[in-house]
Specification:
Length: 127
């Protein structure tokens, strides 16, 4: 069955960097739009960004633009979230999500919804 597993080192100091991985199994990542989301305790889940399947174009929410980068490696069936200049406000449980689609901006805007999700991985930014 379709499965997504997030992983990465979850503790980092403010200003530091961290790369999260989203490994897919049960399906080929090629042809799938992938989104990254996060949820802090007591807060609503929010979108981070996404990468399309058509041309690997990416879309990010304003709060992470210039700091976060999403990329994919189809040979490894994995999508990455590179996070730089991390802030305490970035502390959250991070999820990846997938849908067989060409584009992904609609999922971040909330016009479309990802049906498949990973279980999440904790990221803590603290000194």
């Amino acid at each position: 069955q379709l499965q997504l597993v997030e992983s990465g080192v979850g503790l980092v100091q403010p200003g530091g960097s961290l790369r999260l991985s989203c490994a897919a199994s049960g399906f080929s990542l090629d042809g799938y739009a992938i989104g990254w989301f996060r949820q802090a305790p007591g807060k609503e889940r929010e979108a981070v960004g996404c990468i399309s399947s058509k041309d690997d174009s990416t879309y990010y929410v304003h709060s992470v633009k210039g700091r976060f980068t999403i990329s994919r490696d189809n040979a490894k069936n994995t999508v990455y979230l590179q996070m730089n200049s991390l802030k305490p406000q970035d502390t959250a449980l991070y999820y990846c999500a997938a849908q067989h689609d060409y584009y992904c901006a609609g999922y971040i805007r909330g016009d479309r919804f990802f049906p498949s999700w990973g279980r999440g991985t904790q990221v803590t930014v603290s000194s």
